[in-house]
Fatty-acid peroxygenase
Amino acid sequence: MDAHRRPLIDRTPALLAEGYAWLPNRMRETTGSVLSTRLLGRPALAVRGPRAVRFFYDESHVHRHGAVPAPVLDTLFGQGAVHTLDGDAHRARKELFLPLLEADRVARLTDHVTAAWDEAVRSWSERPRVVLFDEAAVVLTRGVCDWAGIPPGAVDAEPLARDLLAMVDGFATPGPRQLRARRARARQETRTARLVEEVRSGALAAPADSMLARVARHRDTAQGPLDSRTAAVELLNVLRPTVAVSWFVAFAAHALHRWPAHRERLRGGDGAFATAFAHEVRRFYPFAPFLGGRTVRELTWHGESVPAGGILLLDVYGQNHDEELWGDPYTFRPGRFLDRPPAPDELIPQGGGDPAHGHRCPGERVTVGLLESLAVRLARLEYTVPGQDLRIPLRRVPTRPRSGFAVTGVRAP
């Protein structure tokens, strides 16, 4: 270490206090594209920008094994999940998720979810008040379970939806939310492992090309079939991120409420605008604050270094609000994506890199497809937005409108 350089202060308490703003705030204090700091007791280097995305996803730079903190594994991803693997092991496990990259499979999942949405809307009109965040989770759960080949009688959609939401809601914070997330994961891993075992024994039928059948028969490289608990973890890693689209549905409703001029264009069925609107919701609203991995060797970026065994952070929220990339990052403007589609390493709400082989979320195409269709349905839905707390606190990770976006007087189109 340079004798004149001050020891780095651990910034974990500041992260817990500032949430999404923590890394962008620190970046503004430096050059704006790189930051040396300390996190979770380790030296850390934070980077931002399209070139930094490629640097971050280079497997010779970063490993995921051992990088994900235990509280995140025990809530969000699950022990032994694909997110913890590297190299050939990661590529072999990633094959499980390749259907999420196929356009026809994404279309079928969207069809299942929109059918569940249309059915739910009919019941909403009979209720005095509906919280869109919660209701979207049930709709998404029903749709993705149907698509995944889980028989209707094998799961109860509403408690499963609550547990899947809890896994996402509690991963980034100590206290009651994390405790609920741990309990939810343990409960659903046990139930889902039982489904896998029933498929393997022949007691439960699952379509041969369904996700349930795929996880039941999957084999890792030179190893045998996944143990039933790991198979359950990976099936939940399809269900959970699909249900996490509930956050984007609530954000889409928030955007239509704040900027109602976009409603007419969505209602008219302009597909290109629906795609642009989905991208802008994902860019503008906060979802993942950053991503991290353990450094394989000493790395240097723009003159700043981190030793082997340190942490490399990719500033997701900061990049999605980078003035150099977007010009007016704090303006909600879907038209920016009509001018040109987003480059893969520019818009990174669900990570960057190659989703087929790297660590970028393979469900990103699913998220965009679902959000396109559900945003159009939201725009066509008639409802009243009563007084409520629609603030989106940046200190809370993951955040959402505090009220979950409640509506009354729902009238089906």
